[in-house]
Amino acid sequence: MVENWWARRGPVTLVAAWVLSVPVLALVAAVLRARPDVRLLTGAEPFVGHWAVRTGPGLVVVLALLVAVVRYGPGLAARLPWRGLLPAAGAGAAAWAVALATTTSWDDLTAPARGRHEYLAVVPDVLADPRGFLDAFLDPATVLPTHVAGHPPGLVLLLAALDRAGLGGAGWATALFVLAGASTVPAVLVTLRALGAPEATVRSVAPALVLAPAALWVATSADAFFAGVLAWGVALLALASAPGARGRWAYAAGAGLLLGACPLLSYGLLHMGLVALAPLALTRRAGPTLVAGLVAVGVVVAAGLSGFWLWDGIAVTHEAWAPTGAARPYLYFAFVDLAVLGAIIGPAAVGGLARLGRADAATRTVVVLALAAAAAGVLLGFERGEVERIWLPLAYWVVPAVAGLRPAARSAAPAVPSSWLWAQGGAAVLLETILESPW
After folding, report:
1. Which residue of 47, 300, 348, 366 has the fewest CB atoms within a 10 Å radius of its CB?
2. Keywords, A to Z (predicted)?
């Protein structure tokens, strides 16, 4: 009887619990803030930012896109040729992210990239002396912007290279971040199909991926770029591991290059790389994973021989972060992280987790590995808040849980109910309207 009740009411119950957790965490934050030894976020716990109602002419575009995706997205996802669905899904995700970011002003799209704590602030120094910058990067006496100091130097070096090629500045950086982040959507679709998920199921989750509230931080944060690199690394590995794959070893080598670049972009991508185990777990084909792993290790070693050893970077960053971590209560931020994960994957994905057992093996495996990676970040204690951007590389891997919301049918696979898509997009619109985020 309990199982029947959960099958009927589980998704709504889980979403209700998640929604209730947000004001509860805000109230707990108000109490904790009175303690002198506690350092919280910026006043909008569990999120980073400030509560402020903001609307503008761009809201009309946002609502029009929401209506279009809910009304026509499932049909297009079902009918488009596979090679047409992938760019359409990526373009839809990019349009949704940009529309949300420009609800009040076009300037809001590039403003995060121009922040004083961000990467572009040090690009002139890298251009002036790349070798000197790298040599001094891990020196505790070197003063760097917050996000530069808290990450490996990979992205700064890439932005400097783009600048030298004539593609410098906030506009090009924003384009890089948004396009890479939006490309995560087709990468997830490619991965699921290559790993054996029914194509009808893969197509049915596309609209929910496009409308995921994670788009709020795709435009614009550098973590969107990290998400794209990880996603395509996993997608190439899935293609390499698929039965009868052509170009198997080329795919595996490409996967290794991208996956090897991940820890040179963000230390958090080390444990988020758990998602890359999905091809091995599902296909039991070890060769492509072994090749990709060897190439990835080669990339990390090459970076070390060039002047940046990953483990040294982790040690220095952990030591610098320790005072901040000590001031953020572990247990409280564990719940904060879970609540924010629910926000970035959206209510449709939260509800879908209640019926994940209905999904196919490929979808279940990908979702569970992404959740395990998030849990690892919480248990390790390094990710205390700010996960709306930090967990972008994981968010789109959890969203396919919406497959569990599809009504059971023996014939043509039905789409995710439109009510859940309205909730998915509506959550993004609501957060954009009432939360002023620095990203």
Report:
1. 300
2. Membrane, Transmembrane, Transmembrane helix
